[in-house]
Amino acid sequence: MFVLIAGGGRTASQLANVLLAQNHQVVLIEHRREVLARLHRELPTEALFEGQATDPAVLEQAGIRRAQVVAACTPEDADNLVICFLARTRYNVARTIAQIDNPRNAWLYDDRFHVDVALNQSEILASLIEEEMSLGDMMTLIKVRRGQYSVVEEKIPLQARVVGVAIRDLDLPQECAIAAVIRQGKMVIPRGPLVLEAGDEVLAVTDRAGAERLAALFAPPEPVARIAVPPQPSPPPKRSGRRPKDR
Q1: CB 188 within 8 A of CB 181
Q2: Which residues pair with 142 in a beta bridge?
Q3: pLDDT the model gives residue 90
Q4: d(CA 143, CA 206)
Q5: Contact at 8 Å (CB) between 38 and 15?
Q6: How far apart are CA 156 and CA 198, in angstroms?
Q7: With contact defined as beta carbons under 8 Å apart, do 33 and 59 qualify?
Q8: What CATH number does domain 133-218 carry, 3.30.70.1450, 1.10.1670.10, 3.90.1150.10, 3.30.930.10?
Q9: What is the DSSP letter of 103?
Q10: How far is residue 49's CA from residue 83's CA, in Å, rounded to a whole number?
Q11: Domain boundaries defined on the chain
């Protein structure tokens, strides 16, 4: 796959390194001399192209006509939007990805500028924090379909509600499917009659609602609060009905 990257920041250079390590063809476009000096120490020379990525002539010389993916990672939102717009409307690139620099401009990154995937780092971070806080011990392994679905994993604790329950009886949402169960280090095919046990590691493909349902099923029971009973006052000593004798 041939990927054209516009911009030479840390995100762009790391992306180029990862793609090159996976044997993809990469060309990174950058016009700032000081940034190019750093990039020459981090990337192969043949992966670098000096020029302004918003210039159609530069894009053509860098090979945009044969690119399957264009990633716009410049430090300017306006440049990223122009690059995606040119990539689709003028060069018919199949896939465009853009990095959002100012979160206030996120609303611009849509079909009007032909942005297929917009990367808003602050939004991603906020979403991850929210998931970690709300889904307990469940771990999100990967996002699919632009974040609409996730592959999640969780180990069933002792006394969880699902212990001893067959998969077919879990009453899971339609958009939630158990993909695998790891039991004592071995994978078990998650067919309907399979009864879940404490210690099972469950892998599921699910949307947000399904993940919340799984987290509730896998959660250990909440401890029952004990009501403190105040100590009862001791009864007063009984008085004897006998009168003291006169001396």
Answers
A1: yes
A2: 151
A3: 95
A4: 10
A5: no
A6: 5
A7: no
A8: 3.30.70.1450
A9: G
A10: 15
A11: 2-122, 133-218
What 8-state DSSP symbol labels residue 84? H
The single residue listed with the structure tokens 């993916």 is 69
Say how many residues make up the chain.
247
Q: CA dihedral defined by 192, 193, 197, 201, rounded to 10 degrees?
A: -30
Question: Tell me: the pLDDT tens digits for 149-174?
Answer: 788 888 888 888 889 999 889 888 88
CATH architecture group of domain 2-122: 3-Layer(aba) Sandwich (3.40)
Q: Cβ distance 73 to 5 under 8 Å?
A: yes
Residue-wise pLDDT tens digits, 189-239: 888 899 999 989 888 888 888 888 888 888 776 655 555 556 666 666 666
Q: Which residue has the tokens 């043949």?
A: 46
* Amino acid type, 4: L
CA dihedral sign, ordered 198, 201, 205, 206: positive
* DSSP state at residue 167: G
Per-residue tokens: 50? 């000096």
In one-letter notation, the amino acid at residue 9 is G
Task: Name the phi and psi angles at 154, rounded to 5.
Answer: -155, 145
Sign of the torsion angle spanned by Cα atoms 200, 205, 129, 77:
positive
Structure tokens at 109: 């990154």
Three-state DSSP state, 21: helix
Confidence of residue 138 (pLDDT cuts 50, 70, 90): low
